[in-house]
Automatic annotation (TrEMBL):
<protein>
    <submittedName>
        <fullName>Glycerate kinase</fullName>
    </submittedName>
</protein>
<dbReference type="Pfam" id="PF02595">
    <property type="entry name" value="Gly_kinase"/>
</dbReference>
<dbReference type="InterPro" id="IPR036129">
    <property type="entry name" value="Glycerate_kinase_sf"/>
</dbReference>
<dbReference type="InterPro" id="IPR018197">
    <property type="entry name" value="Glycerate_kinase_RE-like"/>
</dbReference>
<keyword id="KW-0808">Transferase</keyword>
<comment type="similarity">
    <text>Belongs to the glycerate kinase type-1 family.</text>
</comment>
<dbReference type="InterPro" id="IPR004381">
    <property type="entry name" value="Glycerate_kinase"/>
</dbReference>
<keyword id="KW-0418">Kinase</keyword>
<dbReference type="GO" id="GO:0016301">
    <property type="term" value="F:kinase activity"/>
</dbReference>
<dbReference type="InterPro" id="IPR018193">
    <property type="entry name" value="Glyc_kinase_flavodox-like_fold"/>
</dbReference>
Length: 377
């Protein structure tokens, strides 16, 4: 019995790596001779850096950068020396999880720290970078990152532009000639998990601004500011990317990645599965087990279990999804290749009761799956 274990993290309970280890423990209880391949995954959001480092054995490096409010923090990034590849997670520098609810302020938060991580990658000699865009506290369309990378952003008085999305209303000069020249030789792939444009009712400010502390009035200010920034960017580059699907990801960082880093925008789960060689591992497996905190109709938008199931369907492999809960519309996931899905709970319990038992419950469900598989064989 060869089992591929490729879960995402279980939010507030286990990392993807911890979840995979718990699954393996359960499989081994039922089938001590089973081969278990552990391949923790993520979809580009929080935890993606950890998943990439775990699956590729990349070196974990740290750097003191400015967080979303300009305060120093230790941010991690990944480095594959042989491939000269850097893994950069926006949330490590400018993540929402590093701010209290009272500190969230989408008008003024900045991606400057992301630019500092890119500088570190360039110093290391990177020729390839994977940029993970989930979990941002920012809505500055990457302007802070640009400033950290040497671009000149000035107001009408010729003064350096303050950081944050709202300040982009005052932008008068956007000079890209001062950008770090090493960026020209850096191939960037940006992982996105949304297809929103930069502006409008479905754009970065309107859809994601409120969770970053933006009021209704703030959203209007930010949308105008990002629109002005897009106008000057289009003038500087000779092309307009504001309607690009994914441009609105991470407060407009999808827009910045495409415009200023010449990045390709890729669904996060596809990027991470490619790095982890999931298709090759799956070819060797008899059954695939994946999972995350919740499986529902919205998972079809590109969550980890669905990304895994689509590859498995193409390869003719059965896929079992273990989820903390099964929500409305989860049955549609079977059309994407999910063979079966189970909730973890073994009885009535609150979320608070379930979280500390997540590893135990994963192991128990995997033991049952292994016993059923062996009986059917």
């Amino acid at each position: 019995m060869n089992v591929l274990l490729c879960p995402d993290s279980f939010k507030d309970a286990l990392s993807a790596d911890e979840a995979a280890k718990a699954m393996a423990k359960g499989i081994k209880r039922a089938a001590p001779s089973a081969i278990t391949q552990l391949c923790p995954l993520a979809d580009g959001g929080e935890g993606s850096l950890d998943a990439l480092i775990a699956t590729t054995r990349a070196e974990r490096r740290t750097l003191t950068v400015k967080d979303a409010l300009g305060r120093p923090r230790q941010a991690a990034w990944g480095w594959l020396d042989e491939q000269r590849t850097a893994f950069i997670e926006l949330a490590e520098a400018s993540g929402l999880q590093h701010l209290t609810r009272e500190e969230r302020n989408a008008l003024h938060t900045t991606t400057y720290g992301v630019g500092e991580l890119f500088r570190a990658a360039l110093e290391a000699g990177a020729t390839h970078a994977l940029l993970l865009l989930g979990g941002s506290a920012t809505n500055d369309a990457g302007a802070g990152m640009l400033q950290a990378l040497g671009a000149t952003l000035l107001d009408a008085q010729g003064q350096p532009l303050p950081r944050g999305g709202a300040a982009l209303q005052q932008l008068a000069t956007l000079d890209l000639s001062t950008l770090d020249p090493r960026l020209a030789d850096l191939h960037v792939e940006a992982a996105v998990d949304v297809d929103n444009p930069l502006l409008g009712e479905h754009g970065a400010s309107a859809v994601f601004g409120p969770q970053k502390g933006a009021t209704e009035g703030d959203v209007a200010i930010l949308d105008r500011a990002l629109g002005h920034f897009a106008d000057l960017t289009a003038k500087a580059l000779g092309r307009d990317e504001r309607e690009l699907p994914g441009a609105g990801a991470a407060g407009g960082m999808g827009f910045a990645a495409r415009c200023f880093l010449n990045a390709t925008l890729t669904p996060g789960i596809e990027m991470i599965m490619q790095q982890a060689n999931v298709a090759r591992l799956m070819n060797e497996a008899d059954v695939v087990i994946t999972g995350e905190g919740r499986l529902d109709g919205q998972s079809l938008a590109g969550k980890t279990p669905i990304g895994v199931a689509r590859v498995a369907k193409r390869l003719g492999k059965p896929v079992v999804v273990l989820a903390g809960s099964l929500g409305d519309g989860w049955q549609a996931c079977t059309d994407e290749g999910v063979t079966a899905a189970f909730a973890l709970a073994d009885g009535l319990m609150t979320l608070e009761q379930a979280l500390p038992r997540t590893a135990e419950l994963l192991a128990d469900r995997c033991e049952s799956i292994a016993r059923l598989w062996l009986a059917c064989r």
